[in-house]
Specification:
By secondary structure, the chain is an alpha/beta fold. 45% of the residues lie in helices and 13% in strands. Helix 24 packs parallel to helix 25 and helix 26 crosses helix 27. The longest helix is centred in the first third of the chain and has 21 residues. It is globular. The chain binds NADPH dihydro-nicotinamide-adenine-dinucleotide phosphate, pyruvic acid and magnesium ion (MG). One of its GO terms (molecular function) is NAD binding.
Length: 757
């Protein structure tokens, strides 16, 4: 993708809708006057008094125990320098987002107008009652050292400067593994460190703890070698001062060195320097966004190298996101008073250990990799590896207990592991997983209405991301004009204009004529019909020229579905198609059907719809738990709708005994497991909430999903058209680019499933 589009995308991402990336969501009911009496005055006085009597009860009655402050003064923001506290806020919000999605930790980001140590320390210390932990971020050296030292000494909650210790922990783990692969011993390796700032000093300290000898380590800053005679350096850096004969420059130091650690600036290392290193060298070029030497350049410089960078677009990403969510998770869960050396080393070994174990298929899928295996290109785990939370947080918590800083003890580690796993349940990652499934086997997707900016933008995104190969239907000139005017970089892509006729038009027309000649269609009309994009696109899919069709942005639903039904037809045994929405809610995904096609289904049609939807949910690797909805619960009301749904459930139980399905049922019982279990313990949903809701008719389904989308803040992915022999998916009028990308992704997964049949 071109840079200007990427930049604009990033700006849009932050500004669209509610500006920024985070919000505060109440965790208790707030619906009634009674709720509010408890949430605030007078009810709130009770927990206040309990905490006043016993201050530790603050963990029992408030969010403190799961709340981390991400605090910066904006003096060293990523590699962007001293850009000020306001400009650091997107990074701090981003960090909050990562804490949440990777470890379910809540974050308040605090950007302080405080440059001096005293001012900064005074403010942060005063925040202790609010937070369970303090993550210092992007504070320049050497101030960061003194700030952290004082806060650690003066506060009773864990304080960690992530740029120092997060980087140290991750690169320490990577170093252990890289040495193992390269056959090097830590106490023998000669190491060159470029950079002498927050990250470099802290990394060097952890390397010494791991066995590296101080006498084998040389460090440089922007002014050259750190030597004892330098008068411009503080104590933190001077502890790494060396005097070595024959070493003045970085190039001198690199000769015969085993390991290079870059925490300085981009492109300061040359291929010649790498070639001068010892056999099987290890190079961690961690400066952001440009590493000390580009990944590609490094691997072409010599074959025996292990190279890691801070970037996500190359193998071996050394990134502190592998650490901070899980380190704080473990520390909070045992109410640790600090994050000490024992806990950091436990994290190092846990992270290093994960990389040596077989890689779960979900991780291969997430990175579009076939077979990730411990070796030169996989020395540390990938950020999306869910084993990080279970293994790193447990290791940190155990180390906190063993080293005496825990104020709460965990005894049942299996239960704790299960609890950790539940914090990153698969559900909220559904869209990401579906995208990964799509990327594992991209398909050719034809877009019926391509002379439209949103379609073209979506086509570019799915192409860039490796989800699909787009084929565009429309006026070539117009499409090219839009691409030019909007500076899209869509590259080589097939554009077909059905109006002009193509070498397939006649064949498609003949096919259509054959199918419809006894339904009043003449050959002349069939030829006319083939200038319509939806008909032409459906024929492309039918004839295998494309794997899926995306249509419908500008036409109504029925007009768009008709060509697909006439040309492609329904799957064997399927009498009617149906429409489903995947609703991404704060409680996880819930599938809704039928929301788009069948106005008033009969009992048999309701059964068909349920079967189609249940099968489709399985395609997304989710076990469907289906509720057939009504305004009645298990016979509590009479009337055509409860009776219809009851009959459908009976038929489903008889014909599909393995299907988890129940009803008739009201929506709140379907979605609330304890409500259902307390009142209807016999339900075949067996104590779990439904994740698939079948509506008795189109109006209830359609109204429900639109309400949820509008006032329930759920993201609606769909409508996913079910029951066709080949994949055709219809966009809602005026879909957004994101919605189109989601539909294409679903279409690709659908095409994969249909190809496997
Ligand atoms: N991959 C990761 O996970 C992380 C990467 N980093 C990266 O590490 C780098 C340093 O970050 P941080 O320690 O927080 O920042 P600091 O500002 O604290 O330190 C930067 C250090 O690099 C030195 N330096 C700058 N340019 C050069 C150069 N050309 N040659 C040698 N030394 C140089 C500076 O020297 P002087 O003191 O003389 O100015 C200083 O010692 C950044 O690029 C950052 O993006 C940081 C944290 C995590
Ligand atoms: C990764 C990180 O924390 C930094 O570059 O500052
Ligand atoms: Mg940082």
């Amino acid at each position: 993708m071109d840079k200007s589009n990427r930049k604009q995308d990033a700006l849009n991402y932050h500004s669209k809708g509610r500006p920024g990336k985070i919000q505060v969501i109440p965790t208790k009911p707030t619906n009634s006057q009674r709720d509010l009496t408890m949430a605030y005055s007078p009810g709130v006085a009770e927990p206040c008094l309990r905490i006043a009597e016993n201050v530790d009860d603050v963990y029992k009655y408030t969010a403190k125990g799961n709340l981390v402050a991400v605090i910066s003064n904006g003096t060293a923001v990523l590699g962007l320098g001293n850009i000020g506290p306001e400009a650091s806020k997107p990074v701090m919000e981003g960090k909050g987002l990562l804490f949440k999605i990777y470890a379910d930790i809540d974050v308040f980001d605090l950007e302080l107008n405080a440059k001096s140590v005293d001012e900064f320390v005074t403010i942060v210390k005063a925040l202790e009652p609010t937070f369970g932990g303090i993550n210092l971020e992007d504070i320049s050296a050497p101030t960061c050292f003194e700030i952290e030292r004082r806060l650690k000494a003066e506060m009773k909650i864990p304080v960690m400067h992530d740029d120092q210790h997060g980087t140290a922990i991750i690169s320490g783990a990577a170093l252990l593994n890289a040495c193992e692969i390269q056959g090097k011993k830590l106490d023998k390796i000669k190491m060159v460190i470029n950079g002498a700032g927050a990250a470099a000093v802290s990394c060097s300290k952890i390397y010494l703890s791991l066995g590296v000898k101080k006498e084998n380590l040389v460090m440089f800053d922007i002014n050259g070698l750190i030597t004892p005679n330098r008068t411009d350096l503080d104590e933190m850096r001077l502890q790494f001062a060396t005097e070595r004969k024959g070493i003045d420059t970085l190039a001198d130091a690199m000769k015969d060195a085993d390991v290079f650690i870059g925490l300085s600036a981009g492109n300061v290392v040359t291929p010649d320097m790498l070639r001068a290193m010892a056999k099987n060298p290890i190079v961690f070029a961690m400066a952001n966004p440009e590493p000390e030497i580009a990944y590609d350049l490094a691997i072409t410089s010599r074959k025996d190298i292990i190279i890691a960078t801070g970037r996500s677009d190359f193998p071996n990403q050394v990134n502190n996101v592998l650490g901070f969510p899980y380190i704080f998770r473990g520390a909070l869960d045992v109410r640790a008073s600090a994050i000490n050396e024992e806990m950091k080393l436990a994290a190092v070994y846990a992270i290093a250990g994960i990389a040596k174990k077989p890689v779960p298929e979900a991780v291969n899928l997430a990175y579009n990799a076939k077979n990730l295996k411990f070796g030169r290109e996989y020395i540390i785990p990938k950020p999306m590896d869910q084993r990080l939370i279970t293994e790193v947080s447990s290791a940190v918590a155990k180390a906190a207990i063993a080293s005496g800083v825990a104020r709460k003890v965990i005894t049942d580690w299996d239960a704790y592991t299960e609890e950790l796993r539940s914090k990153v349940g698969d559900d909220d990652k559904l869209l990401r997983n579906i995208t990964n499934i799509a990327k594992s086997n991209p398909k050719r997707v034809v877009f019926a209405d391509a002379d439209n900016y949103k379609i073209l933008r979506a086509a570019q995104i799915v192409k860039d991301e490796g989800i699909a190969t787009p084929i565009l239907l429309g006026d070539k000139q117009k499409i090219k004009q839009i691409i030019k005017e909007t500076e899209l970089e869509i590259g080589d892509v097939e554009i077909i204009d059905p109006h002009l006729g193509t070498k397939r038009s006649e064949e498609y027309a003949q096919y259509y004529f054959k199918k419809r000649q006894r339904r009043g269609i003449t050959l002349f009309e069939a030829r006319q019909v083939m200038t319509d994009h939806n008909y032409y696109g459906a024929c492309m899919v039918q004839f295998g020229e494309a794997d899926a069709l995306i249509s419908g942005l500008s036409k109504n639903y029925a007009t768009t579905v008709k060509p697909a039904l006439q040309i492609i037809g329904t799957e064997k045994g399927v009498r009617r198609v149906a429409g489903m929405y995947m609703m991404i809610t704060q409680k996880g995904p819930v599938f809704f059907g039928d929301t788009t096609v069948n106005v008033n289904p009969t009992v048999e049609e309701l059964v068909d719809i349920t079967v189609l939807i249940e099968r489709s949910v399985k395609q997304f690797n989710i076990n469907p738990r289906v509720a057939i909805l009504s305004y009645s619960n298990f016979g509590s009301n009479e009337g055509p709708i409860p009776e219809k749904t009851r009959e459908a459930v009976q038929l489903l139980h008889d014909k599909y005994p393995d299907m988890i399905v129940d009803g008739d049922m009201q929506a709140n019982f379907a979605l609330n497991a304890s409500l259902l279990a307390d009142n209807f313990p016999f339900s075949t949903l067996k104590g779990r909430a439904a994740n698939t809701l079948i509506f008795p008719n189109l109006e209830s389904g359609n109204i429900a999903y639109k309400l949820l989308q509008e006032i329930g803040s759920a993201e609606a992915v769909g409508p996913i058209l079910l029951g066709l022999k080949k994949p055709v998916h219809v966009l809602q009028l005026d879909s957004s680019v994101r919605e189109i990308v989601n539909m294409v992704t679903i279409a690709v997964v659908d095409a994969q499933a249909k190809a496997d049949k």
